[in-house]
Design brief:
By secondary structure, this protein is an alpha/beta fold. The longest helix has 17 residues. The chain is about 30% helix and about 20% strand. Strand 10, helix 7 and strand 11 form a beta-alpha-beta unit. The protein folds into two domains: about 220 residues, Alpha-Beta Complex (DHBP synthase); about 100 residues, Rossmann fold (3-Layer(aba) Sandwich), CATH 3.40.50. It has an eleven-stranded mixed beta sheet, sandwiched between helices. It binds adenosine monophosphate (AMP) and magnesium ion. Adenosine monophosphate (AMP) binds next to strand 6. Magnesium ion binds next to loops.
Length: about 350
């Protein structure tokens, strides 16, 4: 077991000393959990293979699942890639710093352990002031996947990080709740047409507004039959799953409320929208309004983790519309549910009652 240090990272000025300590640990090849605007990240020097190896060990992450490399200024990008495609300028001007990750052709400076053996590298410039202060003080790009144990919901509070990673990392920089709550949007610029590999707070609609044509990879919404062909290795692994069984339910508040009330048993919970509450007679946790996708994203992982603490057996989650930031929420939930979706709009009348 590692001796994990708790550091404070609420304010880049007031917590200067702890930020310097975090940066020193990172420069020396250690692992530090840092806050970002998306979720907490488990960081190490992206160009130090031994340090990056420690991320995979702490998370229990499959070796072919690549990491995102975080930078604090555009100058750092040049060393990491062999070529900067033309679209990067407009995307960076509009979305960086922020929750957009770009997949680009990798230079030799990025070790293969970081890219999961691929010849491309995913790069992002975070906006969280503490993340930026740590990056600046460390002076090296940081590989930082979500700071959860592999497969379970990502951490959006320092408490989540302590629950998962105590004794597995060198330090945890405690800060507040992550503003966005889901991981960054991942866009590949290594395909003939830019391709959305993972939806996030930067939406497909916004990307199309800047680039024109953007493809959505089928793996965003569907289970890939042939996982060997996954364009983004993260797509093929179980993800975001609480211990409880998750069942994703599509339908109106009335349909959803009736379905859950009928099917719920001891130990089951509804993870619902505000609008559903009048139709529900079951233990419930709301995760926002039906079209308040940003709120849903912010609450998603915290509510899943809370229901695990309550020892939920099954969680009936009301699915958001797969549009805007709702696409990111939907993408996480279908994976949490192992692609088990009950679509009440598609069921002939009466059929829903029989459905298990
Ligand atoms: P995480 O850091 O836990 O948010 O996961 C990062 C995800 O980004 C991975 O699971 C991949 O799906 C995706 N990713 C990272 N690097 C690449 C890459 N070079 N090509 C395609 N997808 C990538
Ligand atoms: Mg992750």
């Amino acid at each position: 077991m590692r001796k994990t240090r708790l550091l404070r990272g609420y304010d880049p000025q007031k917590d200067r000393e702890d930020i310097e300590t975090a940066a020193r640990i990172l420069r020396e090849g250690g692992t530090v959990i840092i806050p970002t605007e998306t979720v907490y990240g488990l960081a190490a020097d992206a160009c130090n293979p031994a340090a990056v190896e420690q991320i995979f060990i702490a998370k229990g992450r499959p070796a072919d699942n690549p990491l995102i490399v975080h930078i604090s200024d555009l100058g750092q990008l040049e060393g990491l890639v062999t070529r900067i495609p033309g679209q990067v300028g407009a995307l960076a001007a509009r979305f960086w710093p922020g929750p957009l990750t770009l997949v680009l052709p990798k230079s030799d400076k990025v070790p293969l352990v970081t890219s999961g053996g691929l010849d491309t590298v995913a790069v992002r410039m975070p906006s969280n002031p503490v993340a930026r202060a740590i990056l600046d003080a460390a002076g090296v790009p940081l590989a930082a996947p979500s700071a959860n144990r592999s497969g379970i919901p990502s951490p959006t509070t320092a408490q989540h990080c302590r629950d998962d990673m105590w004794g597995r990392v060198d330090a945890i920089v405690e800060s507040g709740e992550c503003q966005v709550g889901v991981e960054s949007t991942v866009l590949s610029l290594c395909t003939p047409v830019p391709t959305l590999l993972r939806p996030g707070a930067v939406t497909l609609e916004e990307l199309r507004g800047v680039l024109g044509e953007v493809r959505m990879d089928p793996g965003v919404l569907e289970h890939l039959e042939d996982t060997a062909k996954a364009p983004s290795p993260g797509m093929k692994y179980t993800h975001y799953s609480p211990r409880a069984k998750v069942i994703l339910v599509k339908g109106s508040p009335e349909q959803y409320g009736r379905y859950v009330t009928y099917h719920q048993d001891d130990g089951d919970f509804a993870m619902c929208f505000e609008e559903d509450i009048p139709y529900l007679d079951a233990p419930l946790a709301s995760y926002g309004g039906q079209t308040d996708y940003r709120r849903q994203a912010h609450e998603l992982f915290d509510v899943l983790r809370m229901l695990d603490k309550l020892e939920a057996e099954r969680i009936f989650v009301h699915a958001p519309a797969p549009q805007g930031v709702g696409l990111a929420v939907y993408n996480r939930l279908i994976r949490a549910a192992g692609f088990l979706v009950v679509d009440l709009d598609q069921e002939p009348a009466g059929e829903a009652e029989k459905e298990e």
